[in-house]
Amino acid sequence: MHEASLVAALAEELLRLKEHEGAHRVLRFTVEIGELSGVDPEAFRWAYEVLREMYAELKEAEMILDLIPARFRCETCGREFSGDYFSLCPGCQSPEKTLLSGEELTLREVEFEVADV
Q: What is the pLDDT of residues 60-74, one digit of tens each?
């Protein structure tokens, strides 16, 4: 399960950002997972639940998963549509398309607890 190694890298990045911001702990963060990214959202969530127990700074951090659908633009007629790598344009049946979204694995937002100044 490669989700465990992805979550481990995510934890390292969150801790690096926490240190950089001078924060006490991570409160919540959002991860975008594209439909075609090859990442299983449930396995990713499970791996995070296991890993967060190892880090005091993440123990109470809420992970929000934002699932991004696959979107394509037809190179022949310009129509945008949902689908997968094998989908034809529903307008003109062309196989020529450009991926617009769906392969993301992005740490989008992070909220920290910081000391009062």
A: 999 999 999 999 999
Domain 3-113: assigned CATH number: 3.30.2320.80
Q: Tokens standing for 6?
A: 């992805």
User: Using an 8 Å Cβ cutoff, are 61 and 14 in contact?
Assistant: yes
Please report which helix (H) or strand (E) contains residue 109, including its range: strand 105-114
Rounded to whole angstroms, the Cα distance separating 95 from 77 reads 11
Burial bucket for residue 88 (CB in 10 Å: 0-12, 13-18, 19+):
middle
Asked if 14 contacts 103 with a C-beta cutoff of 8 angstroms, the reply is: no
First to last CA, the chain: 43
